[in-house]
Write a structure and sequence with these properties.
Elements: H1 16-19, H2 23-45, H3 55-58, H4 66-87, E1 96-101, H5 102-105, E2 115-121, H6 126-142, E3 147-152, H7 154-163, H8 165-171, E4 175-179, H9 181-217, H10 235-246, H11 265-283, H12 292-301, H13 307-335, E5 350-354, E6 357-360, E7 363-366, H14 378-389, H15 395-404, H16 414-424, H17 429-439, H18 442-446, H19 467-478, H20 488-497, H21 508-523, H22 527-538, H23 542-549, H24 555-564, H25 569-586, H26 593-609, H27 623-631, E8 635-640, E9 647-654, H28 659-669, E10 672-682, E11 685-694, H29 702-713, H30 719-742, E12 757-762, E13 768-776, H31 781-791, E14 795-804, E15 807-815, H32 822-833
Parallel strand pairs: 2-3
Antiparallel strand pairs: 1-2, 1-4, 5-6, 6-7, 8-9, 9-11, 10-11, 10-14, 12-13, 13-15, 14-15
Family: Belongs to the GlnD family.
Pfam families: GlnD_UR_UTase (PF08335), HD (PF01966)
Organism: Rhodococcus opacus
Amino acid sequence: MRSDPNGSGKTGPGPVAKATEPGPVASGGSDQAADLARARRQLLTGGSETSPGARNSAGHGRRLDAAALRHALVDLHEFWLTTKGAELGIKPDSGFALVAVGGLGRRELLPYSDLDLLLLHDDMDPTVVSQVADQLWYPLWDAHIKLDHSVRTIPQALQVADTDITAALGMLEARHIVGDVELTNLLISGVRRQWRTDIRNRFDGLIEQTRSRWERSGEIAHRAEPDLKSGRGGLRDVQLLNALSIAQLTDGMPGLGPESPGGGLALAHRRLLDVRTELHRVAGRSRDQLRAQDADEIGAALRIGDRFDLARMLSDAARTISYSVEVGVRTAGHALPRRGLARLRRPPVRRPLDEGVVEHAGEVVLARDARPAKDPGLVLRVASASATTGMPMSASTLNRLADNAPELREPWPKEALNDLLVMLGSGSRAVAAIEALDRTGLWGRLLPEWGAVRDLPPRDAVHTWTVDRHLVETAAYASGFTTRVARPDLLMLGALLHDIGKGRGGDHSVVGAELATQIGKRLGLWPSDVALLTAIVRHHLLLPHTATRRDLDDPETVEKVVEALGGDGVLLELLHALAEADSLATGPGVWGDWKSSLIGELVRRCRMVMAGEVLPAPDPLDPEHVALAASGGVHVALVPADSPHTYVVTVIAPDQRGLLSKAAGVLALHSLRVHSASLGSAEGSAVNSFVVSPRFGAPPQAGLLRQELIRALAGELNLLEMLTAKEEEARESQRVAAVEERGEAAVPVQYAQAPPRVIWFDTASPGEVILELRAEDRLGLLSRLADAFDTCGADVRWARVTTLGSSVIDSFCLDLGGGDTRASREQVESAILGVVPLTKPKKQEGSGGE
């Protein structure tokens, strides 16, 4: 008997053939197998000569499309195998069963796929088994039909499946062909029962094997010559989902429905199968990697278009599958049965993250009282919470939002725009959040213009990503440059939209500028900001093209750039940061010292021609607030602002050291997020106005805030310690969730994307300076900054605080008194840099770490 005792199934004719001669039956079978091979060739060439079993499927003289070809090949081989099996006595109650696995088992037989066959027997006599196996396999070998086979009893097959994950995955797809169906049913039920029972012990190995495959084969969506079978988002991943479904850990198509871009997982799977079918037909042999030179022919055969159309379709299909696998693996991990002490762990708690958004079991989900149908901004709050925490959005949450969430009204509420900016400001964590929104159809609702660039392949090899992914990657890089610019919000929006005009014909910068105007108005930007966003998109190539293609020593070169930008220094600053982010997101080697130095020199020369920067100035005080200040005492007012869920808190109290720190600390402690603040003084009292929004729920009463402020001023509350404890509690909650649900030892520190930047301005008043801080926000940052100023003996005369997404641009007018020296400024700067979020340390060369 020629069977592989180790279960590999990779055997061929050998010495055993001499011991058992096939005889006349084998000879007749060889002729029949030659007919099978000839019929296969006729199916591939569209000829009229086919075997009887395939005639109905194949037709006469016409070229079958990919799906019909697969069905015809399955019918053809099943007809031959059932006929041959009956001829050899493989019948019901014979003690033998022929079982198909692989492509034939899945009814997905490709033109040059191996035949994966398993001959089961009920512990029959070895001589009989050997004779049946030889008479079955030899004709196929003689006809040069590739065969992957094994001969097993049911206990032997179950033992192989128990020790070899790859073999187990194959047997999970087994299908009866001919013979004793009870044997096949025993095998299939046994393998599946064994798989379900032992999945907890095999899950980690299965996922490790999958990730190793992804590392070897890369992502289909972003590969010039993708591996359709083993690449991430490929056919093996669909089989992985099926295996997890059989283990009853997830359903077969998690997280996606027919309304998602591309039509969902089933269509994505079919499209990959069609491309691989045509790849076999074009190559004339089994092949998994799509070569660039074959793409046009395959695109034409599938009536898709040219190679770019084919690449776009493949990207869509692969990203749909990849997202489905991500959801399926995560769902399966949560569903794994617990053993031992793990059963005694408390159920995961629901920790509030934002209004209507909570963390549960390591995922971002909707709160129990959330009403998606009546809350258009909920989609962006969920996404921003996911991006900032690094936790994925639950598939059920995304499906519920896709089914119920209405479109945002135009212009967007300020909170919705802020949540979008928070998400973009989270850097690389935004990529997964946007991908999840896009695959479930929610991103297209927010930005309908995205459809033209979704999965759009690049036109030159230097680009790593599809156009839509390139835009997201550019925004992720731009989040690291937000402290370089005065308008981090417009930098991130410009990064997200700079190539939005591609895929529509014409100059994409001109088309994109028109779309940016349309989008900016929808987002609710001020008209001046819409104009600036439009200019960013229109001129995003101006600096790199001029710096690398023009003579910078020619004054006319600089004058033309300044003229094109209207002498706007803020626009120049934004384009400089965007040029670097765009290059870094394009591909390896696009940004380097040469390009950086050229653009930097061009920007320096343009700045020399443009006017200088305008100093920050205080906001005027409301006369009513001045009157209250004159009356003395502590006053706290809380009134609704001009948009829902937003309030203005005004604190008026006798000016004293520590007042600002304690007022801001009380707001933070009550989960009031400060969007902007104007801080001043009049009649010996501080007049501080804060625009805030509750992180969840309703805001506290003004009387409670006043009472807490009085207690803090009296020294009864240590606000900074309480804020630190609140931050630690949130981190600990994430750590516990990661340990219990994902098996991670710790949660990585959420480093700031951009390093903080401190800018000093001199004023006409002696001892008075203006400090501008550009940094990322954190809980109670304003309170911590004010405390740092107090510690250094710097008196805050006035301040303007602005939060743009996750970035803050805070301007403080400081009275350093007689201590306005270089040393005192360094002391103040060191103190405030000690309370802003940490930046990720740079990787040491050769360290191999992140």
